[in-house]
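Methods — Computational structure assignment.
A single polypeptide chain was analysed. Its primary sequence is given first, followed by the predicted tertiary structure written as structure tokens.
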Amino acid sequence: MSDARDAPSDRSGADPDAPTVATDGGTADSGDARAVSRTGGSVLERLGARREVGVLIGFLVLYGLIAVTQPDIFFDFDSVETLFVNWDQMSGITSRLFRSVAPYIIIGIGMSYLIIGGEFDLSVGSMYAVGGITFAMFMNDYNLTVLAALAAVLVVGGVVGLANGVIVTKAGVPSLITTIGMMSVLRGIAYYFTPAGSRQTPDLPLIDVFGGSVVVRGLEIQNQIFWAIGLTVVFGFLLQKTRFGYHVYATGDDQEAAEMAGIDTDRVKILNFVLTAVLASFAGVVAISYFGSMFGSAGIGFELLVIAAVVIGGTNLFGGEGTLLGMFLGSLVIGVIPVLLVLNGMPVELQEFLTGVVIIVAVLLDILIRR
């Protein structure tokens, strides 16, 4: 598959309002090989050319390894009625997997917009902690209602994202330096507001909207899973089907050409930073609503896992290409690895090591494939 950077000249004179956004981040002009591949060949060939299919297969292979290495968990060889499959165990593990990756998915939505637009944010893990901690603080210390506290948290996230975006675009400080600095600032705030070690949410019914669960045919499904899926669908539509989504792709693909086409690339990047920080703070709200408490150290390392999930899902590290579906599947890959290792009794040190190896290999493969 050719990279969206291969034909910047085709876009330099394009109308920014033209609805020519390709589903993988490129323009669907007649000279684009991807546009040709979508009109010719069999359905299987077209599916096989999509990065998301490969990521899905990778996830299914890793998930299948759980069944192979731990057959007693997934199979009940004494039960003919259930076709020898232990549906309760299987569904329970699957539900816990989706619950564990829900924060990655929610944060990954904003990170996908950012990386597709040519930037990234290393402060999302700290923003996640600040979001959850301040949500509890606003309700306990300032007696705000759940919705008022949520609104306040999202405003805080928006201000942080705005600061990141302005520093990067107007002051010219690289996003690496800007967001590393913001990561430290926010982590210090998280520790400052948790003098007792953690913050707890009050016992209010409306909090269950974010941290509660529903039971479907005997299976408990946490509400944060629905939030992750719903937000992915909404923002996936906005990315693929709206003018702003086209501007995001164009900005990351070739910023100079996008500016010549009349796109305010600084505005696009600032909005992406704001979106990322707001979603990271919302992920913290969802998490503390589910667990009931949050430590100042919450979210450490999230930024790297989220970026890895986005890249594994097919988003180009250099911008201009990617989908939220790919990010969603990449998050599942990141989440299933520790589950596989834990169920097989791997020590924590080896879990960290192997997870890091998988991430590095996946990114290297992504770079090699694009070449």
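Note: Residues 109 and 235 are 7 Å apart (CA to CA).
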